[in-house]
Amino acid sequence: MGTTTPPRTLAEALRARGDESLAGLLRARPDLLNPVPNDITQLATRAGTRASVVRALEHLDRFALQTAEALAVAPDPAPYGILLSLLTGDGLDDGEQRDDVGAAVTAALPGALATLREQALVWGEDERLRLVRTARELLAPSPQHPSPTGLGPTVAEATAGMSPGRLQEILTTAGLHATHDPVSAVAALSALFTDRTRMAELLDTAPVEALSVLDRLVWGPPYGEVTPNPTPPVKWLRDRGLLLPVSTRTVVLPREAALHLRAGRAHRVPEPAPPVVTAAAERDPQAVDRAAAGQAFTALSTVEELLKLWNGGGPAILRAGGLSVRELKRTATALDVTEPIAAFWVELAYAAGLLATDGESDERYAPTPASDEWLDLSAQHRWTHLATAWLPATRVPGLVGGQDAKGRALSALGPELDRSAAPDVRRRVLALFAELPPGTAPDPETLLRRLRWERPLRGSSPSGEGTDLRSRLALWTLNEAELLGITGRGALASQSRALLDEGENAAAARLAPLLPEPLDHVLLQADLTAVAPGPLERPLAETLSVLADVESKGGATVYRFTPGSVRRALDAGQAAADLHAFLAAHSRTPVPQPLSYLIDDVARRHGHLRIGAASAYVRCDDEAVLNEILADRRSTGLRLRRLAPTVLASQADPGSLLEALREMGYAPAAESAEGDVLITRAGARRTPPRTPPTPVPEGPPVPDDTLLGAAVRAIRAGDTAATVIRKDPAEGGPSSTTSSGSLPRTTSAETLATVQAAAMTGTAVWIGYVNAEGAASQRVIAPVRVEGGFVTAYDHTADEVRTFALHRITGVAELAEDGKG
User: Fold this and answer.
1) Measuring CA to CA, which residue among 561, 564, 539, 540 is closest to residue 550?
2) Cα 96 versus chain centre, distance
3) What is the bridge-based pairing of β-strands 776-787 and 790-795?
4) What Rg do the C-alpha atoms of the chain give, in angstroms?
5) Which of 780, 770, 761 is nearest to 810 (CA)?
6) What is the pTM of this model?
C-alpha cells in the first residue's frame, strides 16, 4: 500500500497510492472527474456515493462482481483467507466442488481483487479487506432486496428484535447451554451453526421433510412464508433457530446455517474464467469476404434507393416525432424489404447524416446536402461512411414497433430510440468476432454467455422494454452487421477487420477489388424492358431510372418502359430525339422497334394539352380533344367550362388538374405564366445543412492521459493545501489546516512581510485567499515576485504560476519544517 501504517479510511488508502494508480482509478471511473475533486478526501467521498458505486459495479465482470458479493456477506473487515473460502468452499462437501474450479478461483482471485482495489470499491491490506460501505449496502441481503448470493442475514441481524426468553428457548431446544445474556446467546447459536461437526449432528436428527425445506431455501431466496400453525418440519426448524422469524408470517434461513449447507460457498457456481466463444461453422475466408462485399453493395443500393424515394420531400413527421406506421410500411414496400429492415435502413441513413428534417412548417424528412457528397464518393468509401456511422450510433432500430415505459409505441426516427449501451455492445461483439480465426462464424449462444459474463449487471434497462437489453442489442448487432456487410455468412470479413484495426482507408482498399465494376451499358429487349447485367454507372443509372421503372432486382436489374415512365422523362426536359440517342448509345443490343414507337407516340401527345393557373386552365389547339374531355364523365369533378374554342377553365388547382387528366389517359404538360412548358426534375428538395445526430453518451467520456495527469496533479496539490502542517502565527508552533478548518488571519503588514521573505528565500507559504466572486480557498504558494500590490507565485494547488492581489489575502502562515503531512 506504500506505507507501513495500515490505512484507516478509504481516503488514507487513496492518499497512499502512486500517481499512476490514481490515474487508473480516474480512467476506470471517469464520473469522479466531473468536476475535478479538490483533494483526496473529496475524491474518496465522491467514490463512495451511491450513483458512482452503482456505475462502477455495472462495469465489473462476473467474477469481480462475485468477489464483491462475497465480501458483502463476509465479516467487515475480512481476511483474504475467508474471502477465498467463500468463493471455493471449505472442501468438506464430498467432492461437489471440483478441484479444478477451486484452483481456477485461487488463480483468478488476486486479479479480481486488484480490479476492485483499482476502482476504489475495496481497500485495506489482505488481512483487513473492506468493501466500501455503499457497495456493501447495495449487495448485502435484506427482505426487500435479497443478496445476489442468495444468503440471508446473520444470526445477530435476524435476532436483533427477538426477546431474551425466545432466545433461551431456541438454545435449549438446540441442545445448547442457556444464558440470560442475549449477546452470549447469539454468539452460542452462531458458533453452533459454524461448527461443522456439531451442525452435522444436529441435522442428523432432523426429519426428512425439514431437510427438504432447507434444500429449497439454501441457495435462495432464503425467505419463506409460514402459517400461524406451521407444519411439524417447519416447527422443528424454527424451534432450533434454523429458521428465524422476520415477521409474523415470514421466516429466514440465517447466513451461518446456509453456509454450512453450502459447504462454505457464497455462490453455487463460481465463474473465475470467461466463457469461451465457440465456432458454429468454419468457412473459406475468401468466400466470407465475397459474401460480405456483395451485401455491402446491396446496402449501398438500398440506401441510394431510399434517398431517391425521398428525393422530392419524404414523409411528414409525426407530432411526437418520427415516422408513422403507414409511412414505414410504404417505405418498406418501395424498398422491397420487411418493416424492421426498412427501419434499420432509415435509421442508418439518418445516423450517417444523409437524411434529416427540412425544418419547414409542414416538416418532412428529406435528403441532406451531405447525401449529394456521399453519392459522389466511390462505392468503397460510401460503405466505410455507413459502417463508421453505425458503430458509434446510440439509436437502436430494433426497438421500432415496441413500447416505451409508458406504453407508447416507438416509431422509426422517433425521439425514444437512443440506448447508450448500444455502441459498447456493437464494438464488443465485433471484437469477439475478431478474436476468432478468419472465416469462423461464432455460436450466438456462447457469444451471449460471454457478454453476460463481462457485464452481468448491465442486462436490465430502465426504459422498461426488457430485462436483458444487452443480449437483445447483441442479437440485433449480429443481424445488422450481416445486412451492412460487416460480416458475411456469419463471419467477420477481412475488410471489417481492417476497419476496426486500421481505419477507413485500409478497409476501403480491402473492399474495392471485391465490388463489381459499374457498367456503361444495358440490354434492350423487344418486350419493352432493359436488363442491367450489373451495377450501372451513376449517370446512366439516374437517367434510366427516370426513363423506365424498376421491375425486379437481383444480380441483374430489369427496367420496364411504360407510357408513364417515358412521359416522366419528357417532363424532365428530354426530347424524343434525346431519348433515342441515349438508348442507342448505351444499349449493347439494337433498340427494339416497339420501344421507338412508344417514345414517339408519347412524345407526339406530350404537351398537346397545356395546364396553367386560372385557378387552372387547359388549352389545346385541337378543339376535338377539348370536346372529348368535356364529354368524359370522369372530368365532372374538375368543373370544367369552355372559355374559348381552344381553352377550358377549371376550379381545381393546376397540380390536381394535371394529375386527373393523366389518369384519364392524356399527356398534358404544365406551363408557366409566360406560356413556357415547365420542366420538372426529381430531387429538387434538400434540407438545410444538417449534422448527423450526436450519440447519447453512456457516461462521462474516458479522459486522455493529458487530462488524467493534470487532474492527478490538481488533486495532489489540493490535498497538500488541505492537509499541510503549518506554523501558527500567534504561537509559533505547528498546526494542521484540517484541524482548524479556517483561513489564516494576519494583518496587512504581516502578510506583506511574510510573502516578501518567502520570495527572497524561495520557500512556500500557506495563505487564505478570497477571489473576485467572494469564494474563499486555502492555497500553498511559492512567491516569486512581490510588487505593485500583487504577488506572483507558483500555486501548488493549481499547479501553475498565478498572480494574487495582496488585499485579497486574508492571512499567511509559514509551513512547518517537518513536511506536508
Assistant:
1) 561
2) 40
3) antiparallel
4) 39
5) 770
6) 0.75
